[in-house]
Design a protein that fits this description.
Length: 443
């Protein structure tokens, strides 16, 4: 048994309609046909996630990609490019104005906006200015913000000396920022897009106070990693606080303090289960869908404004895999994203769930002072009956949505299905083993 408590006086805010997001490597733009209005199958899948999401372009390959105003001649070097890993071939890729024009058509059809990453690690200021100008001119209102650099807290011993720290990054960021603004005075910025070192976020939040064109704080979250570590297991992934997470839950107060310092929202601009491409048998099975739904709703309950699930190509942890040639497939995480997206546009409420297992979580949201949706996510092997709070004891009609699969290890047959409408007072909600259930008021 478990009991859910809702504190209607402590809302962290509304889960934005643009909360759901996808993240792709910048190298993917080397194939200008991938993100284009002609890629109708991918557009259909993006629409299934939401009509106002955010596409983030960046990742490790943003530090390997250059910009050219000229349309590339010949065949693109690849059709799809998945997550950047230690085994990815490190070769220079080129983003062109033509690719950005096609990206605009993709965004127009999907209704999504874009977080667009620029090359700081190995790029020149002049090239970043040219790319920023093209992105602003071509993407127009579909460009939410520019990001200068990907995971700058990981630059040292890679692109920078071992002594490289937050203030070194801020100095470089200012040089690029000021040069871009001189050419593109209406540009908006997000950052610092860190991997895990919160000192970089703190320094950026302090600097952002002096730049009204900085509109968003960003950082990454991976529950485990790298792939191949002994603790990259389902047991760890489904735990309340994965032992090898890139950002421990205990660090959340520092993130919130940065939000207060800068007076800006925070978005998890790149996230997934296990970095370095994902762990086979963990990142690509149903358990990852439960992890994804739970993590997205947990971040929303903290007041974060969105989460971009990283992927692409045929990456193990990608929520959508495939290409125009082979067709696209929904991986289990896709359904977890869909489940969490049912809260978009509603006010998240502070919830507490009392249960013997910390792998049972509960979330609530609604409009005004009336709760109209409740989610229970059961990441245990046992069925759970959750006693509902008194606020749900009034008579209504409810729809029930269940996220299920034959087993936690299932790679297929994942279902996100509506039950029949349930009338009456809701005193209890049952969640089967490895199951997520959403109760929504329909009157």
């Amino acid at each position: 048994m478990a009991r859910l408590t809702i504190d209607l006086g402590s809302s962290p805010g509304i889960m934005p309609l643009s909360y759901v997001g996808l993240s792709y490597e910048a190298a993917q733009l080397a194939n200008p046909q991938f993100f284009s209005a002609s890629n109708k199958e991918l557009i259909k899948l993006v629409h299934e996630l939401g009509t106002q999401g955010v596409l983030r372009i960046g990742g490790g390959t943003s530090e390997l990609t250059k910009y050219s105003a000229q349309k590339a001649a010949g065949t693109p070097p690849f059709e799809t490019f998945g997550p950047d890993t230690s085994k990815t071939v490190k070769q220079g890729t080129v983003t062109t104005a033509f690719a950005i024009e096609n990206l605009r058509s993709f965004l127009d059809v999907t209704g999504w906006t874009c977080l667009y990453g620029l090359n700081l690690g190995q790029g020149t200021k002049e090239n970043a200015v040219a790319e920023a100008e093209a992105a602003q001119r071509i993407l127009g209102p579909r460009l939410w913000a520019l990001q200068i650099g990907n995971e700058p807290d990981s630059f040292r011993n890679r692109y920078r000396p071992a002594s490289y720290g937050p203030q070194d990054y801020i100095h470089e960021w200012l040089e690029f920022h000021d040069a871009i603004v001189q050419r593109v005075p209406t540009a908006k910025f997000a950052g610092p897009d860190i991997s895990n070192k919160l000192s970089f976020l703190t320094a950026f939040a302090e600097e952002a106070r002096y730049h009204p064109d900085v509109i968003l704080l960003t950082g990454h979250y991976y529950a485990m990693g790298p792939a191949g570590r002994p603790d990259a297991t389902m047991e760890n992934l489904l735990s309340a606080n994965p032992t090898s997470a890139t950002m421990k839950w205990s660090a959340i107060p520092m993130v919130k303090e940065a939000m207060r310092t800068a007076a800006l929202p925070f978005r998890v601009s790149e996230a997934n289960s296990c970095w370095n491409g994902g762990q086979p048998g963990v990142s690509d099975v149903f358990g990852s869908a439960l992890w994804c739904a739970d993590t997205m709703l947990r971040f929303a309950s903290l007041g974060f404004c969105g989460m971009n699930v990283h992927g692409g190509g045929n990456g193990v942890y990608s929520s959508i895999v495939g290409s125009e040639t082979t067709g696209f497939t929904r991986r289990p995480e896709f359904f977890g994203m869909q489940f969490a997206s049912r809260f978009a546009g509603a006010t998240m409420e502070k919830t507490t769930i009392t249960c013997e297992s910390d792998r049972v979580t509960g979330y609530a949201a609604g409009m005004g002072n009336r709760v109209d949706r409740i989610a229970i996510i059961n990441k245990t092997v046992n069925p759970i009956t959750v006693t509902m709070p008194d606020t749900l004891r009034e008579r209504r009609q409810w729809s029930v949505l269940r996220l299920t699969a034959p087993s936690v290890e299932s790679t297929t047959d994942v279902r996100l299905a509506e039950d029949d409408v349930v009338p009456g007072t809701q005193k209890e909600l049952n969640a089967e083993p490895y199951n997520a259930v959403l109760l929504s008021s329909v009157q």
